[in-house]
Amino acid sequence: MKAALLLSLSCLCVNGLAAEGKQDHYEPGIALPEADGKALILRACTGCHTLEGVPAYSKYWGFDRWLPMVENMIKHGAVLDEREKIVVTQYLARHFGTDG
């Protein structure tokens, strides 16, 4: 399941959504709380894929599970430096995970 999600997310990026310059792919029903990390997610993640899969991990993944996912997305083209990677992982774990 996790591998299928990663593959589908990376395929969306490879198929050119990022090249089209679309930055608002997250579904309207997905609330992104205002907090440190939101702008990074919008910049680094939504250029390649939607965020519709993120709520599936709500209250399921903590920092230690989100970190490899974020690192894998970086390997597939998400542009985040080391500090930003931690900020995004903390945001996801806090707002879409077990660390909230």
Structure description:
This protein is mainly α. It has one domain. It contains 4 helices and no strands. Helix 3 crosses helix 4 (82-95). The chain is globular and about 25 Å long. The protein starts with a helix and ends in a 5-residue tail after the last helix. 22% of the residues are buried. The model is unreliable at 3-25 (pLDDT under 50).
The number of helical elements comes to: 4
Strand content: under 5%
**Roughly how many Å is the radius of gyration?**
12 Å
End-to-end gap: 24 Å
> Can you write the helix and strand succession as a string?
HHHH
Q: What percent of residues adopt helix (DSSP H or I)?
A: 40-55%
Largest sheet: none
Rounded mean pLDDT is 78
Structural class: mainly alpha
Strand element count: 0
Q: State the shape.
A: globular
Structurally, how many domains make up the residues? 1
Low-confidence stretches: 3-25
Q: Layout of SSEs?
A:
Layout: H1 2-14, H2 38-44, H3 63-75, H4 82-95
Helix pairs in contact: 3-4
List the keywords:
mainly alpha; disordered N terminus; 4 helices; 100 residues
Describe what is shown at a glance.
With 100 residues, the chain is mainly α. It is 47% helix and 0% strand.
